[in-house]
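Case study 2.
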Amino acid sequence: MKIVVLDDYQRAARRYGAFDSLPDASVSVLHEHIDDPAELAEALRGASVVVAMRERTPFGDFTLFPDLRLLVTTGMANAAIDLAAAASAGVTVCGTTGSGVSTAELTWALILACRRHVVTEDRALREGRWQTTVGFDLAGSTLGVLGLGRLGTQVARIGQAFDMRVIAWSQNLSASQAASAGATLVTKGELLASADVLTIHLKLSDRTRGLIGAPELAAMKPSAVLINTSRGPIVDEAALVAALTTGAIAGAGLDVYGTEPLPLGNPLRGAPNTVLTPHLGYVTDATYRTWYEQIVENIAAWRAGAPVRVLNP
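Prediction:
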């Protein structure tokens, strides 16, 4: 049984995954991302099992992978995998659960870094300068949560601990749902105009793609910051760069991007008042331990004829 693990940027797969416990398994771990479909097909030739890291590699045309029978993805949802196409090709797709808190925690790391200018002051200190900025208190300010699902609710409750006023909006959010998370339901316009920190926690869909564009950024306070740990395409990147460059908003903390890894020439790399992280929301020791333990379990269960955590029909 040939197993290929994709996109192991951090060389974590062998450290966390007990692949040696799988009898007669030949495991190949790829550390660099492969964009070209033909190159990917060649890399996966002969592999009956592939492990995909989040949404880094798309799987839509399964005719490219005639040997593939089991595709394991980290997480219990992966928009880069066409589940129906996989089923039609006879490929079982299984997922893994996670820690459930890591992305919310990173959201607050970005919020604090932006509001207290942590990155700017770190760089200034290393260059010999002392106290170059003036930060903002979170207490008494307004946290705007765009999307109040599981992650948005976690972020909202932490906002309350900072004594922030928490407001929220999404298309189908009710006042009672907002109240149960300690937030006040407002209109989209009120959310944009009132938030000192606007944080995004929506799933990417046709409805949310480009939801935050030039008009929405213009409606925000010039002193506000935008945080996105959800999906990059929810925000119009060109409009965001323009808003940051002109000072229409005070800053942004981003963990996700329209193209990942973020290309070297992307204007966001040079945009002012930004804190940029390379999609670290899920990257924690606890999450990786759970993922890789379940990856090996998924492979063993599938091989035994009783697959678990199956995502496609």
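The CA atoms of residues 69 and 91 lie 4 Å apart.
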